[in-house]
Automatic annotation (TrEMBL), chain A:
Domain of life: Bacteria
One family name in Pfam for this protein: NTP_transf_5
Name of the protein this chain belongs to: Nucleotidyltransferase family protein
UniProtKB/TrEMBL annotation, chain B:
Transmembrane segments: none
Organism encoding this protein: Stakelama saccharophila
Keywords: Kinase, Transferase
Phylogenetic placement of the source organism: Bacteria, Pseudomonadati, Pseudomonadota, Alphaproteobacteria, Sphingomonadales
Gene Ontology molecular functions: kinase activity
Entry protein name: HprK-related kinase A
């Protein structure tokens, strides 16, 4: 299983020096499939590796550094567009880790620019972004209405010149989820960076990463999100984390994240938080199902988690209505 | 995966895994004179797989996967498995190559200097490259020219030459001894037939060359040639590059250096003879 190779290499990069060609091929395929190749490359920098492997990892480092530069520039463009409003703009996820200089940002692939703003100001934020060159991506009126009524973010916007996507959040979980994190507390305790942009406070950052991984998504790309959590705990520690998770109603996903992060990546966490629960084994399997060609090896588990993610996101009756509407429009889940 | 093929083309190693034997058998035959990936570690993985397990046998449809893919790419019928493999290799390069600035271009070499030809699909890049190879030029590639940001040199990437529609007959006539792949009629890009680069192209594929001339050929016009200023060449080449944006500053500097150091010409031609004469004229003028 190549995912285990990847986990071992991230934990202890020196172990890659023992790999043969087929081991390298499996490791690289898994790292690319999990979008962790840049992270792996940064971890392996300076080791003595076969030339071909070193070239591949050097390219990955280059890509990640270029991606980081682009992401920070995108954050700055957002700051400039929103500066006249005087709204606190909080960077989330990859862009936040890079901007705050956290270990989780090293080599990380950064996709969209995710920001959090106060819900009361979201209309102004949207108008300012539209005026500054961002445009709608979702042309479908149902999707648009769904986002506005039920989601934790605006429908995604894309910048017409730079082709960069922005997700504007007003909280960190869909409004339909059973759990309602305290968005006002997230904003009130955010920290300002040089330049005026903000990031979440330490414990909130970990809570958000865990919510993103276990309370919302279907765990696609979960190894990367769990690596974020491993790095965040390494940088920020776990003091006050439990209380903060409790406040956001995220106790369960946060503790699961901590347990799995300790189990897979060896994260240093308090003794009482280390022991895996029975259900964790299912998550662990879901996280580590990759073969030497980078393929997901457990389709059943994958589809099960896909359904779980939808059940977490909305109550069953609502989910049925939603799927019916999407199906009539020709949308098929899991092609 | 059940069937595996690995190859090095220029500086880039690939491995192709397939649910079916046929595409791998064709790759093995056509690339039989090529080396294996350096250190046994290919740069990119391509997967040819059935979308559902039973589609391996019932109406077999080849889905192109790999390290980097475009979602929603339509599967191809199994008879086009070779094309699927070639498209998969192209995709990995187009989406993920970062060591070189990629130009969607054909390139040939003479006396250590490279002629780079780029233009829209159908402009005749592949045909011209094949015809020049038949006349003794060293083929460096018909799909991508690899520009090294550190040295400004062009690296060879001599994959199978993909000939389309009428050009198949034109090149077969010019190269009666050439090795051709199977005829692939009715592909999404018309009728395709691959040509194996000649022995010189394969033997010397590790040798880079200094770019000497950039040509923008256009088929189907009255014979004409004009100089293209660096500014226009720059813009045209940004459009011809799949990774110019992803390379950031090094990409900009590499392209700026290329267009300021190397003359560019647009050539219009009604037939192969005129094209070859214009290429020679442009080459002489730049010497």
């Amino acid at each position: 299983m190549s995912a285990h190779l990847l986990i071992a290499a991230l934990r202890d990069p020196a172990c890659v020096t023992a790999l043969d060609a087929s081991g390298w091929n499996a490791l690289i395929a898994a790292a690319r499939a999990e979008r962790l190749i840049g992270t792996l490359a940064e971890r392996c920098a300076g080791l003595r590796l076969p030339d071909a492997a070193e070239r591949i990892l050097a390219d990955a480092r280059f890509s990640a550094r270029e991606g980081r530069r682009t992401a920070l520039w995108e954050a700055e463009a957002t700051r400039r567009a929103l500066a006249p409003l005087g709204v606190p703009v909080i960077l989330l996820k990859g862009t936040a880790y890079a901007a705050a200089g956290l270990a989780a940002g090293r080599g990380r692939a950064i996709g969209d620019c995710d920001i959090l703003v106060p819900k009361a100001r979201i209309g102004e934020v949207e108008r300012a972004l539209l005026a500054a060159g961002w445009e709608w991506v979702k042309p479908d009126p149902y999707d648009d209405a769904y986002y506005r009524r039920w989601m934790h973010e605006l429908p995604p916007l894309i910048h017409r010149d730079r082709d960069a996507m922005i997700d504007v959040h007003h909280t960190i979980l869909p409004l339909t989820a059973r759990v309602t994190p305290d968005a006002e507390a997230l904003i009130a305790d955010s920290e300002v960076l040089d330049g005026g942009l903000r990031v979440l406070g330490g414990s909130d950052m970990i809570c958000h990463a865990a919510a993103h991984l276990f309370a919302d998504g279907d765990l696609a790309g979960g190894l990367r999100n769990l690596w974020d959590i491993h790095c965040l705990i390494g940088d920020l520690g776990t003091d006050g984390l439990a209380a903060r998770a409790e406040r956001h109603g995220l106790r369960e996903p946060v503790l699961r994240a901590v347990r799995l992060s300790h189990h897979l990546y060896g994260t240093d966490v308090p003794d009482g938080w280390r022991h895996l629960r029975p259900a964790d084994w299912l998550f662990r399997r879901r996280l580590s199902s990759r073969d030497g060609w980078g393929r997901a090896t457990n389709r059943l588990l994958e589809e099960g988690f896909y359904m779980r993610s939808h059940l977490l996101r909305m109550p069953p009756g609502m989910l049925a209505r939603h799927l019916w509407t999407k199906w009539r429009k020709g949308h098929r889940p899991v092609a | 995966m059940r069937h595996v093929f690995a190859v090095r083309i220029g500086p880039v190693g690939f491995r192709v895994g397939s649910d079916w034997r046929a595409p791998v058998a064709q790759l093995e035959s056509l690339y039989r004179d090529y080396p294996a990936p350096a250190d046994g570690i290919p740069d990119f993985t391509v997967r040819l797989h059935a979308a559902r397990p039973w589609r391996r046998v019932i109406r077999p449809a080849v889905t192109i996967g790999g390290d980097y893919v475009i979602p929603d790419a339509a599967p191809l019928p199994l008879r086009l498995g070779l094309l699927a493999a070639e498209m998969g290799m192209n995709l990995q390069m187009a989406l993920a190559q970062r060591r070189y600035l990629l130009l969607h271009a054909s390139a040939v070499e003479r006396d250590g200097r490279a002629l780079v030809m780029t233009g829209l699909s159908g402009a005749g890049k592949s045909t011209l490259a094949a015809l020049l190879m038949a006349r003794g030029w060293r083929l460096m590639g018909d799909e991508f020219a690899l520009l090294d940001p550190e040295t400004g040199l062009v690296h060879a990437f001599p994959r199978l030459i993909s000939l389309k529609n009428e050009s198949v007959a034109v090149v077969r006539a010019a190269m009666p001894g050439g090795r051709f792949g199977p005829a692939l009629p009715d592909t999404p890009k018309g009728d395709i037939r691959h040509l194996v680069p000649d022995a010189q192209a394969i033997a010397r594929m590790a040798e880079p060359a200094r770019p000497a001339v950039i040509l923008f050929p256009a088929f189907g016009h009255r014979r004409d040639m004009r100089a293209v200023p660096p500014s226009e060449t720059f813009v045209r080449l940004t459009q011809a590059s799949t990774n110019y944006t992803a390379l950031g500053e090094p990409g900009f500097e590499t392209l700026t250096r290329l267009v300021t150091e190397v003359p560019a010409r647009a050539i219009d031609y009604p037939d192969a003879e005129s094209a070859l004469a214009l290429v020679e004229a442009a080459w002489e003028a730049a010497a």
